[in-house]
Inverse folding.
């Protein structure tokens, strides 16, 4: 089974992808929930790999962060949906590197910020899972590292 290595050009909305298929720019207006950009990786994460980690560098946070998403939010540090989730980690912004580790040995997920483990975000992983991101802020731009470069998070992930 193949590992995720780049963004899937056929599975995206309101985003442009550079020639490396790793850097994204938000192309929507960022004015409502209907024009939020999203993309997922070219392959699902194979559970037999036991641990899967990737990092996203926030190149530009854009004009505003959208709080109507599910995941680790940069604008309020919550993990959940519509800003109504539970407090999870610190805010993040331009220049920060956010990592995500899926641990299929104990079915948990944790995030990192600039190489620091923020603790378990949720448990009970199941189903077919893909790395994905969502952007909804004019000027927003990120770049993903699926392992082609050294990670900011230095722990032994093997």
């Amino acid at each position: 089974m193949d590992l995720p290595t780049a963004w899937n050009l056929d599975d995206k909305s309101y985003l442009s992808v550079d020639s490396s298929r790793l850097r994204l720019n938000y192309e929507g207006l960022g004015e409502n929930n209907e024009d939020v950009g999203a993309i997922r990786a070219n392959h699902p994460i194979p559970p037999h790999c036991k641990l899967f980690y990737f990092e996203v560098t926030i190149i530009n946070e854009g004009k505003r962060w959208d709080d109507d998403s599910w995941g680790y939010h940069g604008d309020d540090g919550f993990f959940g949906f519509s800003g109504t989730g539970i407090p999870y980690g610190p805010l993040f912004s331009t220049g920060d590197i956010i990592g995500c580790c899926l641990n299929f040995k104990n079915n948990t997920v944790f995030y990192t910020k600039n190489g620091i483990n923020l603790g378990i975000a949720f448990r009970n992983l199941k189903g077919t899972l893909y790395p994905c991101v969502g952007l909804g802020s004019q000027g927003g731009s990120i770049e993903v590292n699926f392992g082609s470069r050294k990670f900011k998070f230095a722990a032994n992930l093997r």
Remarks:
- Residues 7-45+54-97+128-145 form a domain with the Jelly Rolls fold (CATH 2.60.120.920).
